[in-house]
Amino acid sequence: MIYLDNSATTKPLPEVMDSFVKVSKEYFGNPSSLHGIGGQAEKLLSQARSQVTQLLSVKQKEIYFTSGGTEGNNLAIKGIAFAYKDRGKHLITTTIEHASVRESFKQLESMGFEVTEIPVDSNGRVHVVDIEKAIRPDTILVSVMHVNNEVGTIQPIDEIGQLLKKYPKVLFHVDHVQGIGKVPLDLNESHVDLCTISAHKFHGLKGNGLLFVRDGVMIHPLFTGGSQEGKVRSGTENVAGVVCMSKALRLILDKLQTELEQLRKVSNELRKGLEKIDGIVINTPEKFAAPHILNFSVPHVKSEVFVHALEEKDIFVSTTSACSSKQKTISNTLVAMGIPEERAGSAIRVSLSYYNTLDEVKKVLSAVEQTVEGLRKVMK
Amino acid sequence: MNYDRILIRYGELSTKGRNRSQFIQKLANSIRRALHDFPNVAIKGTRDRTYILLNGEDGHLIVERLKSVFGIQSFSPVIKSGKELDEMKDAVLQLFRKVYKDGNTFKITTKRADKMYPMDTNELNHAFGAHVLQNVANLKVNVKNPDINLQIEIRKEASYISCETIYGAGGLPAGSSGKAMLMLSGGIDSPVAGFLSMRRGLELEGVHFFSPPFTSERSKQKVLDLSEKLANMNGHFQLHIVPFTEIQQLIQKQVPENYTMTTTRRLMLRITDAIREKQDALAIVTGESLGQVASQTLESMYAINEVTNTPILRPLIAMDKTDIVDIAKEIDTYEISNRPYEDCCTIFVPASPKTKPKREKVTRYESFVDFEPYIQEAVDHIESILIRPQTVKEDLFNELF
Prior knowledge:
The complex is a heterodimer of chains A (380) and B (401). Chain A has two domains: 2-7 and 259-379, Aspartate Aminotransferase, domain 1; 14-251, 3-Layer(aba) Sandwich (Aspartate Aminotransferase, domain 2). Helices cover 42% and strands 14% of the residues of chain A. Chain A has helices at residues 14-26, 36-56, 69-83, 99-110, 128-134, 157-165, 239-276, 303-312, 322-325, 332-336, 341-344, 358-379, and strands at residues 2-3, 63-66, 90-94, 114-118, 139-145, 171-175, 194-198, 209-213, 281-282, 293-297, 315-316, 347-351. In chain A, the strands form three sheets. A seven-stranded mixed beta sheet of chain A has the order 2-8-7-6-5-3-4, with helices on both faces. In chain A, helix 2 packs parallel to helix 7 (239-276), helix 3 (69-83) packs parallel to helix 4 and helix 7 packs across helix 12. Chain A is globular, with a radius of gyration of 21 Å. Chain B is an alpha/beta fold and 401 residues long. Chain B has two domains: 5-169, VC0802-like, CATH 3.30.2130; 179-398, Rossmann fold (3-Layer(aba) Sandwich), CATH 3.40.50.620. Chain B has helices at residues 20-34, 59-66, 85-99, 121-135, 189-199, 217-234, 245-254, 260-278, 298-305, 321-330, 334-337, 359-366, 372-380, and strands at residues 5-10, 42-45, 49-53, 72-81, 105-112, 140-141, 148-154, 159-162, 166-170, 179-183, 203-210, 237-243, 283-285, 312-313, 383-387. In chain B, strands 1, 2, 3, 4, 5, 6, 7, 8 and 9 form a nine-stranded mixed beta sheet that branches. In chain B, strand 7 (148-154) and strand 8 form a beta hairpin. In chain B, helix 3 (85-99) packs across helix 4, helix 5 (189-199) packs parallel to helix 6 (217-234) and helix 8 crosses helix 13. At the A-B interface, helix 1, helix 2 and helix 7 of A face helix 6 of B.
């Protein structure tokens, strides 16, 4: 089995699972309970929080544990919109965001907010000048993803952060779900005010994530109840998951330090190989691309057909983002990049982890070549 | 562009006459302790300044750590550059861009310690100023009151460029004023009193009264967590946990209800004083603030203080609660103190404690029991824990993370 759908989700690491089992079994208490069992759970939670804050170079009170990327993005965007609506009702985002960002903005639009969507160039990248042009006196938020989930383009987060330094009333949210552990981002240097991270994208477990909210930034809660997480996110904390996330985060940032070159090598090999195969067009730009996502099209072959054909050879890839692939819509990002509908409809996303090897790339390339050949005979 | 060294300025240290070298030594020790997990840094203490050579370590993290080291008035991250004019110009501009915000004004201050350098100070000022002005649009010079003061120092071996002055925690280096005991209840005030006295160079050990099952493990944990915060400032923190249940029960039995609080405080003070003697300390620090609660009225202090003539330092005596809370938030103890667990001070509070207790009365009530053996018993059964700063903590949960 060769698993190449790591942007959809990753396989949890065994040592992460071990922590989950141990915490769930032995430290199952509710951190809010008064007795010792609750106390231990609370201790685990606070140790996880302090590990995460150290890894991200932020403060303890700037981390809110969530259920994952979708919640983080919803909380960041709506939480800011509701908290700062008296200052202004204009919001800025891009045309290539993840559904959880896009739909949050759509919902806000129906509630009387105004949203400007910044288009991208043929590389799938926004331009800082376009963002600056869109800023108005009543703008309260700019939300831009770091690494696009469908084609892997890296957005100019640092430049946008430097720009927004000049607009202290405009907050900056970054959806870092695809970037974490693969493309470095310094939240302080880049003046990021809010940042979403999800655990299952870096070998943690599903149902866990975190939202960074810079000290001093107000956020309106979406969940109310028992006042957990500084009243921003009520609900009994998922202690075992949070512990696993802090462990997985430590391990992935370690990999980023030591094995990024290896990942690049694997990814380059894959790209070079695919470029050579007749009948394949690469959609991921050469410049500004993350080292783990590669998107290509096999014109005239529907994405879905190709995915299933590769699956027969025990290779697992994806059509576009997992969240939209079941809805049979074509990739938003590819359309925004100006790629014709026909080519976008035959797009395939390969997404790597640090655990994929050069040997696997070889097997994948030969399987892809065979599949393209076989399918094109049929489709013609 | 990465910083290469950090220059540290002293505050009151410079007035310390013949003790100065000791103070500088203590400061170097505190800095070393605060930066113990950056093995490559080197610390050079001189009479007027201390330098930290980063040797490739992360300057940002170090700057954050230094902000809380006592005895530092201010400090500036510095970049080392070659002495070629173009190289220096580039470095100056890069650094400037990093701190520049629209509308800022600036000036250039060049110091030429290397008198052999071919250009003089004025020529250098002009060269750097012109370079920055040419490259940053709409920039204005203001030599009187600039937002950014770019300082370039040209020395024999290299040139050093800086532009930020970051304020330090002030005060005196840790441990330079001797040792005292801090009475630590778990409330908001005592950690703040601890912080303020540590900043004045006191080395502190904590005393906490623990009355299980009336107070829970969690209230003890709260005190341990507060102690960890103090350990972060101090380098380490010794906490003495006094078993207090028996004495508290005895007080309830022996003393009329409205005087129990006064007697409790007197006994706590006697026990603390006994520990102080054992630990060779010279004073007791408390978080009392005049009139805040019944035990902190002048009459109460007069009645309680009778049991010892050891100096009792009350750094918060004249402070308002709101100011104390502000400091507690700043030193990150407020959230911990606010956890809602009963402690030894709140558990047996009578419905209406005497706000104006009389010395004669309290001594008379206490005269029917000999508390001395109980005090001895408590002191003998103290649990002493050495608490390390967060950064070096070993934890039983570590394998989970």
